[in-house]
Fold this sequence. Notes:
Blueprint lengths: L5 H9 L3 E5 L10 E3 L2 E3 L2 E4 L8 H6 L4 E6 L2 E9 L5 H12 L12 H4 L3 E5 L1
Antiparallel strand pairs: 1-2, 1-5, 3-4, 4-7, 5-6, 6-7
Protein name: DUF2255 family protein
Pfam family, one: DUF2255
Amino acid sequence: MTSWNNSDLRRIGAAEELDLESERGDGTLRAPVTMWVVRAGDRLYVRSVKGVDGPWFRGTRSRLRGRVEAGGVRADVTFHDADPDEYADVDAAYREKYGRYTGIVEHVLTERARASTLRLEPR
């Protein structure tokens, strides 16, 4: 596992939104999708409101690689399925960061969304 440098971790973690481009099987990038991103400890995470059936999430499955951009940082990443024991910290990070969006934040806290939790790691 490769770790984020402190500056990129801080900047991406503080960004309101992240643009994610997943790699197709041929190595080209899909169109960017804008989503929420959270930091839990020294890791960065995203989730699909539609769970594992969400179109952008399905796109991450072909190569488990892509590119993200947030907080002025553009980075090539790998996508890793989060372990269920990471979900509570990720839930807490979503509540803390996006809790002001009452009614909306709850959509990323469902079991369906939790099942799609991806940890972003730089490559």
